Amino acid sequence: MQIRLSAHCRTGVLVLTVALAACSHDKKSEQKKIQSVSVQTVKTVPYAQSVSLPGRTTSYLTSPVTPQVTGVIQKRLFTEGGVVRAGQVLYQIDPAPYQAAYDADKADLEKAQAALLSAKPIAERDRSLAAIDAISKETLEEAEATLKQDEATIDADKAALESARINLGYTRVVAPVTGTISASAYTPGALVTADQTTPLATIYSYDPMYLDVTQSSTDVLALRKKLADGSVKTDANGNAQVKITLEDGTTYAHEGTLQFAGVGVDPTTGTITLRVIVPNPEKLLLPGEYLHAVVEQGIDQNAILVPQQSVTHDQRGNATALIVDAQNKVEQRSLTLAGTADNNEWVVTNGLADGDRVVVAGSQYASVGDTVNPVPVADGAAATSDAAPAMATAAASSAASATAPAAAASN
């Protein structure tokens, strides 16, 4: 059976619908006005300042092993990948031709020395005879010239013999430094030359290691000032001491020393390359690893730290945060950050002051200019969890109000 409502009844239903909608709107407005947000009151605290500089490790020494003479390798006398000592024989090049050259030069020297033994008394005798005019002046000059020539021949033969001795010694290729040696690029039987560019092997010294890091020229200047005023921890030589963070995030057992090795600013990046010397007795560090050098820069007695979740970044990358003012209204602040602390907090250098209340949770339910109910961060979890059910309740009431006229009309 179809039910028709009179005009009077239809007017009443319309009024009821409008009233319910207005009530729902009032409830939403009321819910928005009483929205609770979790806040943390800013307090200045002592904070140990530090800067983390990323970089890669390089060997303290890298020494290529190259032949100094030409010849055939007879033996390889080391274990690839092992530790070798400075002066240790690594390769033996066939010494036979160099031994023969040494023996020949030695014989030439002995021959020249024998000639000198004969020329010296002749020259002395001719000097005595020339003093009494027993011989001509030309005869004396010839004898002295022969003596000087024999002496010069001896000097030349000595130099040739020394060169032959050096070349003979070069047939024993020794390690120039102590370190870990790479795989050999040549095997016994291979011909090597004195002027080749390819090394036979390469020796790396891993203790200590270099860590090359980069820092902006502005930050380097600030660090130098902190070193000058004594706020940065230094060693006995006045070099800044640094802690090393490994690739897995753990702290390395040994502290390094920061060396200001940069001699200029990179014009494209505005950075300076600095060098850290890191002890590596356990050989834990290897060349090419990506590490961080953490430089402690003193203690700021009035530092401001805020939770990371309370800070957002706009489209330009600027840091911002929501603040609840004395009238419980929400405002937005622009912040200047100086990095992160160890407990997931931002270090704020500008934009906040002692006593400011920063929104740490519930900011999605509040906009700039809204009046809110600030709940201290200790109760923030409850405030945040209660906010969503409250909005859900308001939405449910609105939905119920919207369906009421339809139900009335169907009746």
From TrEMBL:
Chief location: other
PROSITE patterns named among the record's database cross-references: PROKAR_LIPOPROTEIN
Residues of the Multidrug resistance protein MdtA-like beta-barrel domain: 208-297
Chain ranges of the Multidrug resistance protein MdtA-like barrel-sandwich hybrid domain: 65-203
Keywords of the record: Signal
Domain Multidrug resistance protein MdtA-like alpha-helical hairpin: 103-171
GO molecular function annotation: transmembrane transporter activity
GO biological process, one term: bile acid and bile salt transport
The protein, known as: Efflux RND transporter periplasmic adaptor subunit
Native species: Paraburkholderia acidisoli
